[in-house]
Amino acid sequence: MIGIIDVGGGMRAVYGTAVLDYCMEHGVSFDYGIGISAGSANLVSGFAGQNRRAYRFYTDYAFRDEYMSSRNFLRDRNFIDFDYVYDDLSGHDGEDPLDYEAFANSGKRIYIVATNALTAEPHFFTNEDLWQDHYDPVKASCSVPVVNRPYVIDDVPYFDGALSAPLPIRKAFADGCDKVVVVLTRPLGRKHTERRDAAFAAMLEKEFPAVAQAMRTSAKLYDDALSIALEFQYDKKALIVAPDSIGHMKTLKKDLNGVRALYRKGRRDAKKVVEFINS
On the CB side of 113, how many CA atoms lie within 13 Å of its CA? Predict the structure, then answer.
């Protein structure tokens, strides 16, 4: 069983969809996937076989104010309007619908990671939690604290999955994967920044104390998880794919040239994935 983990990263996650598009075009298929934050959106489109669909979200729709903007935030404290993204755009009668039938019949297993906003524990949504025009787990996984309010599913509020399980590679192997591709969206040697995390933690302390604490330790959690992934790569069980540079790109930065550059890097680096899977 071949698995892929896409760690997401907002607009930087266009790199991950480039990897999926290239693999799709070169006959490489994944049986299993774990998507975190925007990585979950990439995987859903990829597992539906919709080549370049996710790319349009990064290069077109994300630049619309309806998608993400200060106007949205001032209206209801949600910089990204996930209902617009996953209902108005992705619904069966939307502008760019997800082919849910193809996704559901693909035979692929997906896990979408979100963080319980009350406990800061990870929650792994599955295929069974998605159905036609109901993509709430993806909305929850992408809800960045402070930038967005938590997304509520069955009376439980959720934030971005990267807070609690930024790279759950051990789960992939425990679930039976023989090989796992890990897609990062920052250079391999680049350390996770803690300054913004500390500032966001202070803002969340009163309402979501467990999440605030998780933000303070998120850099270490990511680095520890990456160290585990590197061990699997050393044993030739995993392949880590990461851009050599992200330029001036940031998580929610609307930079079309930067997005296109990262997509090109992803397609270039995906050649290593094809070699790894076929070896």
Answer: 27
